[in-house]
Design goal:
Layout (H helix, E strand, L loop, with lengths): L15 H8 L8 H8 L7 H5 L3 H9 L1 H9 L4 E6 L5 E5 L4 E4 L17 E3 L11 E5 L4 E4 L11 E5 L2 E5 L2 E3 L2 E2 L3 E5 L4 E5 L15 E5 L2 E6 L4 E6 L4 E7 L13 E5 L2 E10 L2 E9 L13 E7 L7 E6 L1
Antiparallel strand pairs: 1-2, 1-21, 2-3, 4-5, 5-6, 7-8, 8-11, 9-10, 11-12, 13-14, 14-15, 15-16, 17-18, 18-19, 19-20
Protein name: F-box/kelch-repeat protein At5g60570-like
Pfam family, one: Kelch_1
GO cellular component, one term: nucleus
Length: about 325
């Protein structure tokens, strides 16, 4: 039987004997490695139920061992995490159509309503527009100060594409909109300015650019027209693909989420109906193409009685 090497994906052979003794009766009759491989395929939305079975399962879920094993086995499961009411974060499993409320985060309440990226750029808490950028290492729990950008900006958006980090849009002052973008090379630690990368004019009342990267291709939502656009990296131009399944213009882009969801684009926003207010989740796969000028959006689910505003949203795959 093939064994995991020392230190690979969080596993340590020096602790193998201890782990086997801890988990040896998870699934009676099966070797611990086989039992763990089976349990690694349990969907994350069922982990809370699994942890309630007994102390051993609770210990397994709490240890994080399953996440390391899932990564080693190449098991990727995308889930949507969002805040759309004061009660806090919720997780949605698109495959099972299952919602679950997450424990309250032990942090400042403003975290629920403020975007937190692995790479942060822009203004400080006083609103001063800065050139500074910082990179966060989630494994080490540490921030690293990066070289300054070429232009100070706030209300901008960032994303990774082709192994590099990009910042586009935003404003440098209440009356100055930035149409340029900047590319950061993590190897050379240098920024490169790209003129005209985001030609849409932003102002202080508009949301930061709604952008997402799927298959290393950049997509964006144009607030004023409710259209989805695609970026051509070679020509540094944008082309219109089709319309969103809901409106972004009525709120200047605020309260709407536009994210990469595996090989698809995900849009999350509010909708009013006879039954009341709710949050609608829809997805579209760029590989399916544009048909007669239309995007074939697929409704994933509707979360009712939670208001119309999405304060924060993230998609995680693990």
């Amino acid at each position: 039987m093939k064994t995991r090497s020392s230190g690979e994906d969080g596993y340590d052979d020096s602790k193998r004997f201890t782990r086997e003794r801890s988990y040896d009766s998870l699934l009676p009759g099966l070797h611990v490695d086989i039992a763990l491989t089976c349990l690694a395929r349990v969907r994350r939305s069922d982990h809370a139920s699994l942890a309630c079975l007994n102390r051993k399962f609770n210990s397994l879920i709490s240890s994080g061992d399953l996440f390391g094993l899932r990564k080693q086995l190449g098991i990727i499961e995308h889930q949507v995490y969002l805040v759309c009411d004061p009660r806090g974060w919720e997780a949605f499993d698109p495959v099972r159509k299952k919602w679950r409320r997450l424990p309250k985060i032990p942090c400042d309440e403003c975290f629920n309503h403020a975007d937190k990226e692995s790479l942060a750029v822009g203004s400080d808490k006083n609103g001063t527009v800065l050139k500074s950028a910082e990179l966060y290492d989630s494994k080490l729990g540490r921030w690293e100060l990066l070289p300054n950008m070429n232009s100070p900006r706030k209300l901008c958006s960032g994303f990774f594409m082709d192994g590099k980090f990009y910042v586009i849009g935003g404003i440098s002052s209440p009356n100055v909109s930035l149409t340029c973008g900047e590319e950061y090379n993590l190897q050379t630690r240098k920024w490169r300015k790209i003129e005209g990368m985001y030609p849409n004019v932003n102002n202080a009342s508009q949301a930061p650019p709604l952008v997402a990267v799927v298959d290393n291709q950049l997509y964006a939502v144009e607030h004023s027209t409710n259209m989805v656009k695609k970026y051509d990296k070679e020509k540094n131009t944008w082309s219109v693909l089709g319309r969103l399944p809901l409106r972004a213009d009525s709120s200047n882009g605020w309260g709407l989420a536009f994210k990469a969801y595996g090989e698809e684009l995900l849009v999350v926003g509010g909708q009013r109906s006879r039954e009341g207010e709710g949050i609608v989740l829809s997805s579209w796969c760029p590989r399916s193409g544009v048909k007669n000028g239309l995007l074939d959006w697929k409704m994933l689910d509707i979360k009712e009685h939670v208001g119309l505003f999405v304060y924060n949203c993230a998609v995680m795959g693990c």
